[in-house]
Amino acid sequence: MKNQLLAILPMVLIFVVFYFLLIRPQNKKQKERVQMLSLLKKGDKVVTIGGLHGSIVDLNDERVTLKVNDHTRLTFERSAINSILRDPAKVEEKKAEEKEKKQEKPTEVKEINNSQEKTEEKKTEQAESSTEEVVKEETDKETAEKS
Fold it and tell me: TM segments (predicted)?
C-alpha cells in the first residue's frame, strides 16, 4: 500500500508544480484580458493583435470598428484587441502617485522599526534591572549569612 502511494506521489507533485507555474498564471492573464475587453469604450486608443493602432468609433458585443486615419475605418472582432493605449498624461500621474507611495512606505517602515527598537530596549532594561535586583538579593543573603 505504501509503495503504491510513493509511486503516485511524484505525479501529484508534478501536477501541483504545473498548476502553480503554468495553469494558474494563465488563468489570471485570461481574466485580466476578459476584463480589459469588457472595459472597452468609444474613443479608446487600442492596438490589435496584428499591431494596428486606432481609435474605437463603434463597438458591440462581438465587433469593434477602429478609425485608423481620417478616411479609414476597419472592423475587427473584439477579441482581436491586444491592449488599450493609455493617455501619456494619465500615465505620468500614475507614476507620480506610485513614487509618492514608495516614498511613504519607507518612513512607515522606519517608524515601525523605531517602535520595535524601543520595545526591545525596554525589555533589555527590564531584564538588566531584574538581574541587578537578583544580584543584590544574593549579596544581601551572603552578608546576612556571614554575620
Answer: 6-23
